[in-house]
Structure formats: C-alpha cells, structure tokens
Amino acid sequence: MTTRTHRPWLATAVDVWAMNSFSYLVALPIEIIIAGMSWREHLQVRLVALLLNSLVARPFGLWRSWVFQRFNAQETDGFWKLYLLDTGVFLSFQMPLYVGNMILGGAGAAEILKAAITVSLIAGLLGRPYGFYLDWLRTRVGLAAATAPVKEVMA
C-alpha cells in the first residue's frame, strides 16, 4: 500500500480511534478489578477519558513520531530499542493524563494511587503493544508508521 502524506484529518481519526479503543480495553480490568471502582465510577471515568483521549490522541501520535525520529527508530531495529522507546513515550505522555482523568472522573485518592501504581508497573506491557497497534492501524489506511522515513511520518 502506498503511503499517503498530508492527510492530517485521517491521521487524527486513526490516532483518536487507536487511543480510545486501546485505552478502554486496558482500563476496564484495572479500574474495576484492581482499583475496585464501581461500574458507575468506571463509566464516569471512561466518559471523561473519551473526551480527553480524543483531544490528546493526535498530539500523542505526533510526540511518539517525534521521539522515534530523534532516536532514528526503524522497523528493523531490535526489539529492545522499540520497546524502550514506546514505553518511555507512553509513560511520559499518558501517566499525567491518566491521573488527571481519574481526578476529573471523581475517583478517590486511594483508587487513583492504586490505579496509577498499577499502570506504572504495567507500562512496559502497554507501551509497545499500543505503539504496534497504532502503527498497524496507520499503515492499514495508508499512513506512515513512526518507524517510517522522516518525510513520511509527519503526515
């Protein structure tokens, strides 16, 4: 498939879908099972997350692409380089937003602390799968992955 450039509306739509779909599937067991939130609290937090994720999805995608460019990340790089980059990008961007989202959603201090510690501990399990998922979705619609040559990434 040919990589299309200069389609910011498509890149935004893909980034928003990726972030919201991935976030919900990850947050569900963390918030309900581990943090012990009620379904009502969970749905309130997820509603706020839908809004916030939709607002930050594209900036996160651009941040990720920028970091990958700065470290000259390529598809052929070893697992550990891509893993560490995606984990660092994920933590540096998502953790402050996640905690803020829980505060806005009405979660209590103990719930926020438990959820934040859990997300920190499993960030290594989330960063690379999300990055892979985002790149996979982008390439399905003809957009460049973060590991694509620089001129293609900032579409």
From TrEMBL:
<feature type="transmembrane region" description="Helical">
    <location>
        <begin position="78"/>
        <end position="100"/>
    </location>
</feature>
<keyword id="KW-0813">Transport</keyword>
<keyword id="KW-0997">Cell inner membrane</keyword>
<keyword id="KW-1003">Cell membrane</keyword>
<dbReference type="InterPro" id="IPR010574">
    <property type="entry name" value="Ala_export_AlaE"/>
</dbReference>
<protein>
    <recommendedName>
        <fullName>L-alanine exporter AlaE</fullName>
    </recommendedName>
</protein>
<dbReference type="Pfam" id="PF06610">
    <property type="entry name" value="AlaE"/>
</dbReference>
<feature type="transmembrane region" description="Helical">
    <location>
        <begin position="47"/>
        <end position="66"/>
    </location>
</feature>
<keyword id="KW-0812">Transmembrane</keyword>
<feature type="transmembrane region" description="Helical">
    <location>
        <begin position="16"/>
        <end position="35"/>
    </location>
</feature>
<feature type="transmembrane region" description="Helical">
    <location>
        <begin position="112"/>
        <end position="133"/>
    </location>
</feature>
<keyword id="KW-0029">Amino-acid transport</keyword>
<keyword id="KW-0472">Membrane</keyword>
<dbReference type="GO" id="GO:0016020">
    <property type="term" value="C:membrane"/>
</dbReference>
<keyword id="KW-1133">Transmembrane helix</keyword>
<dbReference type="GO" id="GO:0034639">
    <property type="term" value="F:L-amino acid efflux transmembrane transporter activity"/>
</dbReference>
